[in-house]
Design goal:
FAD/NAD(P)-binding domain, binds flavin-adenine dinucleotide, 3 domains, 17 helices, D-Amino Acid Oxidase, Chain A, domain 2, seven-stranded mixed β-sheet, alpha/beta, single chain
Length: about 575
């Protein structure tokens, strides 16, 4: 029998009839290798006019892929184009999950690097197709496909999912596969193919009640999002890419009038000695938002992936003199531009001047109510992405919807005001301009040196944190605090700028962050369950630019039983009900 190649696996795993017209189709490849099978599936997806709206491909590998090997043996120019696109997004692929996005976000590759058992354990989705290692040695007795790993694989299969595997592997694994619920085909043909197609049809009912089990995908329908800042707009765009009709309501007449009206902000990973959840989430978030900025915004005008220098001028647990760190995957983005771009996606509609004062569930639909109790809109799903406005809204409607008052009564969300100081280059002294770095600098405070504004380039320095329970010292005191931070971060710049700060020539932008108890966002269902239709996506804290796109992808993945963009244990750190054993 001839050695099977990627097209044999493709034929066995992908039947055009199975994925035709689906909203999402999810494929798990247990041995990503040099991506041959991924490229074959990508190519088939592009060629099929009845392709699924979103194709998820999850590739598992023990080591980061070596992209130099990828183009070898690629006869078709189209496939070489895919390799080039993949290589472009493949910066900093260490151990862990990495979400790469192609075809305007409709083809999503989740590269998972590490030990097979851990990678399987960290998945939470329902696969439509599973590709087993093409290397027959992997199925030999005592090698990687033992009963426990096949069980872990079966846990990810939806009923009817296809498993494509080598015929010789199937012979070796037949008893284990059958025990786990895979049905093997009878071999009747005269010319048996080298790759066969088993199907997941266990004789027992699949339980979705145990902790960590994946909730079946919600039917794609309508959603109302409350809040048109980074959190709401990113949720709206992520759902619309998956076919949802999304109405975004905001109290303000136009989008991005809350914290997301910040003129420009840093997009940079958080760094910690123990690589804590925030550090890992921030790396995943930076990758996602820079992909979005690249696809939707004008580089140099609305964003730039300049890289960011991280300095340690004492404090934050680092000794003075700690060498600076360079983040190549980082930069700055104008939040309002990104919000507008997300709201402009097909399937999203924005309506301003709508203050949501109540929520009511009636015959399976959520109604969002105005102050007079009139319904402004209704949908099967509602997402509250209205930052600090979440708690008063839930408190107001907890009498009518008792399940909501538990959350409303908790002091979960806090408001932390702050100020950024900024000025046009034209208004700044020449000596200061000569000291501006070419890229943003982050540390104790931050500096964005060159952000294009309507009247010319500007620098921005920030930002202050005003505790909610202390009296506000006023704009000039906040400027003073920002200058003090700048003096530690970039003393050679702070000195020539000091007279500008003293004479009131520096401008102020003020806003309020919405912060949770542990400083991580809250994403998840409110009330009684995932399918009850009321979700929260809030508490972006000081990092809405870095985290909003990630939160939106986590929410959309949980609604669609799709692969998570990060490990399940990491996504749990974002879950609104993260304290409960049932969380994610
Ligand atoms: C000084 C400062 C500096 C910052 N710097 C950075 C930075 O460098 N990088 C970074 O990533 N982040 C930064 N941030 C944080 C960032 O601005 C926020 O995390 C982000 O904008 C939050 O987005 P959001 O959509 O959750 O909230 P918002 O943008 O505040 O949006 C909430 C929306 O909900 C609406 N709303 C509220 N209640 C209702 C209601 N009942 N009905 C209808 N609509 C309602 C509001 O009108 C508002 O438009 C900074 C924040 C501050 C204050």
């Amino acid at each position: 029998m001839a050695e099977p190649d990627a097209s044999d696996f493709l034929r066995a795993a992908v039947s055009p009839a199975a994925w035709a017209g689906q909203n999402a189709w999810r494929c798990l490849d247990t041995a990503f290798g040099n991506g041959q099978q991924f490229f074959a599936v990508w190519d088939a997806w592009c060629r099929d006019e009845h392709r699924p709206r979103v194709l998820h491909y999850v590739g598992l590998c023990a080591e980061p892929p070596r992209f130099d090997d990828f183009a070898q043996g690629m006869a078709q120019p189209a496939l070489r184009g895919f390799v080039a696109q993949l290589r472009q997004q493949s910066l900093d692929l260490g151990a862990g999950f990495h979400r790469l996005s192609f075809e305007n976000g409709h083809l999503l590759l989740t590269l998972c690097i590490g030990d097979l058992s851990s990678l399987l354990r960290e998945q939470r989705f329902q696969a439509d197709a599973l590709l087993l290692d093409p290397d027959p040695a992997m199925a030999a007795p005592g090698s990687r496909w033992d009963l426990w790993r096949v069980k872990a694989l079966a846990r990810l299969a939806c009923r009817g999912a296809v498993l494509a595997l080598r015929r010789d592997t199937a012979v070796l694994l037949r008893p284990v596969l059958q025990q786990c619920g895979f049905v093997m085909p009878e071999n009747r043909g005269p010319e048996p193919s080298a790759v066969i197609r088993a199907e997941f049809h266990p004789a027992w009912a699949l339980k979705s009640s145990r902790p960590g089990a994946v909730t079946p995908a919600l039917p794609v329908s309508r959603c109302v999002v409350v809040g048109a800042g980074l959190a709401g707009a990113s949720v709206a765009a992520a759902l619309a890419r998956r076919g949802w009709q999304v109405l975004v309501l905001d109290a303000s007449p136009s989008p991005a009038q809350g914290a997301s009206s910040l003129p420009a902000g840093l997009v940079v990973p958080h760094v910690s000695v123990d690589d804590c959840s925030l550090s890992r989430l921030s790396r995943a978030g930076v990758r996602l938002v820079l992909q979005q900025a690249q696809a939707l915004l004008l580089r140099g005008q609305d964003w730039d992936g300049t890289g960011v220098e991280q300095r340690y001028p004492g404090g934050n647990g680092h000794a003075p003199g700690t060498p600076a760190l360079w983040h190549a995957q980082a930069g700055w983005v104008k939040p309002a531009s990104l919000v507008r771009a997300w709201l402009a996606q097909p399937g999203v509609r924005f309506q301003g001047g709508c203050t949501v004062a109540g929520l009511q569930r009636h015959h399976g639909l959520w109604h969002v109510l105005d102050a007079a109790g009139q319904s402004m809109a209704c949908a099967e799903q509602v997402v509250l992405a209205n930052a600090i406005g979440v708690a008063p809204l839930l408190a107001a409607c907890s009498a009518a919807e008792p399940g909501l008052d538990t959350f409303a009564r908790q002091p979960t969300l806090t408001k932390v005001d702050g100020q950024v100081s900024w000025a046009l280059h034209n208004d700044s002294p020449a000596l200061a301009l000569s000291q501006l770095p070419d890229f943003p600098v982050n540390g104790a405070g931050s500096l964005l040196p060159r952000v294009p504004m309507p009247s010319g380039p500007a620098w921005l320095a920030g930002a202050t944190y005003q505790p909610n329970d202390e009296p506000d010292p006023g704009e000039q005191a906040h400027h003073g605090a920002n200058l003090a931070r700048l003096a530690r971060l970039l003393p050679v710049l702070a000195e020539p700028l000091a007279p500008m700060f003293a004479s009131g020539q520096v401008q102020a932008w003020r806003g309020s962050r919405c912060v949770s108890g542990d400083r991580l966002p809250l994403v998840g269902p409110l009330g009684t369950g995932v399918d009850q239709g009321l979700w929260l996506c809030a508490a972006m804290g000081s990092r809405g630019l870095t985290l909003a796109a990630l939160c939106a992808e986590v929410l959309a993945a949980r609604w669609g039983a799709e692969p998570l963009p990060v490990e399940a244990s990491l996504a749990r750190a974002l879950a609104a009900d993260r304290g409960k054993p049932s969380a994610l």
